[in-house]
Amino acid sequence: MSAGQLDTLGQEGLLSLYPERTRISVGMATCGLATGAQAVYDRLSQEIERTGCDVVLSKTGCLGFCQKEPIIDLFIPGKPRLTFVEMSPESAVEFIGAIAAGRVPTDGLLCRHDQELLLDDVFRDYCSEGEELTGVPLYTDVPFFAKQMKIALRNCGLVDPGSIEEYVARSGYSALHTVLSGTSPAELIEEVKLSGLRGRGGGGFPTGLKWEFTRRTEAEDRFIVCNADEGDPGAYMDRSILEGDPHSVIEGMIIGGYAIGASTGFIYCRTEYPLAIQRLEVALEQARLHGFLGDDIFGSGFSFDIRIREGSGAFVCGEETSLMHSIEGVSPEPGNRPPFPSESGLWEKPTNINNVETWSNIPPIALKGGKWYSAIGTEKSKGTKVFSLVGKVTNTGLVEVPMGITLREIIYDIGGGIPDDREFKAVQTGGPSGGCIPASLLDLPVDYERLAEAGSIMGSGGMVVMDEDTCIVDIAKYFLEFTNDESCGKCTSCRDGSDLMLAILTRITSGEGRPEDIDFLLELGEAVMDASQCGLGQTLPNPVLSTIKYFRDEYSAHIERAECPAHVCKPLIVYRIDPEACTGCTLCARNCSMSAIRGEPRKLHVIDTGRCTKCGVCYDVCKFNAVILE
Amino acid sequence: MSRTPEEIVRASLEKHGSGREAVMEILTDVNRELGCIPEEAIIATASAVGVSNAEIYSVVSFYSFFSIKPRGRHIVRLCSTISCVMSGSAEVLEAVRDDLGIREGETTSDGRITLETTSCIGLCDQAPAMLVNDEPHTRLTPETARAIIAGLE
Fold first, then answer.
1. Could you say which of A175, A297, A437, A612 would form a disulfide bridge with A363 (CB–CB 3.0 to 4.6 Å)?
2. Looking at the domain assignment, is residue B68 inside a domain?
3. Cβ separation B20–A330 shorter than 8 A
4. Is the pLDDT score of A563 beyond 80?
């Protein structure tokens, strides 16, 4: 591969992104496929053939607005790029019908893009004069997208993840070319340090520093690893990047390999992500074919290749020492640190591990410079972060925002607030190592330091929003169940400590809590943190500690008054029929599978609490709001 | 005629070599083809790599996607993670259990379906979700989940 060949490849990519004909691209990441994107794609294809209209059909990854999948984009030469949401095979027929008739389809039209950005630069101006379709909202005015800034997700939802040409057209592999054409590894490491990039997997360790440590360790060979064992509940950023833009991770790793002096890289991806693995395999093959991987890359003398390793359903393998044991084929219990992987990692060689999102940030930093990247974000947390916004929030999806944005902006401006007129209660960040942040801290700027001060962590980027119907003790119990299940059992503190904490939480949610339980949980939590070897044990008490910190009243209500304020914990709730509101319509009695409701037609009904299993069916079916939850 | 566990291990060794680092790949190959990792495969892998059976067993038993017991033709993995729980995965699980007459970790007597719950599968935006073999299904209700499972042969 030479500079000229790279240029030719990019030209081919531009032609495939912007042919001189109409093009339709269908979002076909897992989120799209799960909602029927394949059926939409097939129907579009049939209709194009049937009507004989001159349209190119292609595939892309996820645009981020997963709630609105299936999403498709329409590119008509000279007109804005148009994004359509919630498509179906039926609407696909009308869609092609409109195009065949020379009209712009309108059903499902979300927004228009007048221009395409690549990092800060204009990549494409879409409109010829008079073709602006000004009645359609602009992409940048859609609240879900307005406050986002896409660096890691720069290509997701635009390029075909199966096309190296389209990736190259979006300046792909030019960072690698620039680096290998005269930047020394030391200069490159300085640039990454200058960028302020910190590990996006959760730890937040400065990436450039980690690279430097690994580079400095004397060794004949070194390894780099991409940690794609994304396992935090509520987090799927890495899956989306791998499915939508696998080359961005591969290019980042090659650049990292050069900086660190490694000849082999491993991508450790969880088996739960079959599509991500498949797309990575295709992308790696293409990168080898074009000489971005292999011997003497760009004639620089630098040789590098990447292999995929599959995890097989063990959360703890996301922990780096455990992950390396898994790659080595030994039982993947975590090991001691120090020595850190930068000194002694895979097969005792210096090893640098970064997560998917970190790697995908590397090409833009190498291309535009560390200073450019460090201009974004807060004092100690630079750049952007991708979050998966899930739970009780109107717009679920993947959002990439500059560090320093407030939780309120993410949850209300981007996420559209809480559905069904419910009140916000808390947001859980950082998965099972993180904590719950209450409404009083909604104006907290999101960065590594602020989240830690609030008793949570940045984590890998899962953001689970909870409303007033969520019981906070139940949530803490959920996370303990998770870590208790995933604990490898090596350390007594983690294994037995999580057992004991879970038993106490179960007791509290069953209405059998004891007055001393809260203080004992706090004490036990500290002990588990102090005495456990790896990150899993050291952080597993966080969800309990942070919820006690902010919601101690709710714990007390369970223990002292045997009440669950959110009406979630079944042993603590009672269903009752309001005599004023009951019309005797018999609907509840007819729907009760336990025959626990008695009453004559047009007379008051009564629930036999002895037989009631608290399934809530009567509550759901009553049309007069006569069933009360206490 | 399907291959024996020993044959799969032998073929996998040719692809991945007999180094210790090939263990996961061999086991993944066996698990993918047979739906489980039978004792014969553990013994064959251990002797090829030159470690004890117990060491290979410790690797196999660590991962939730590996199983020593034979499993059904289809593996249904219902996500039991927080965002799925908040969206009603418990009701879905109950419906599936009732329909199949089995609990998590069990296989129907006709060998058709194994039911499991799993940690997060990264489909939180469209909870509740499950994987049927490799295929994701999202926004489940008790009714849609029953229908999907009824459609498995």
1. A175
2. no
3. yes
4. yes
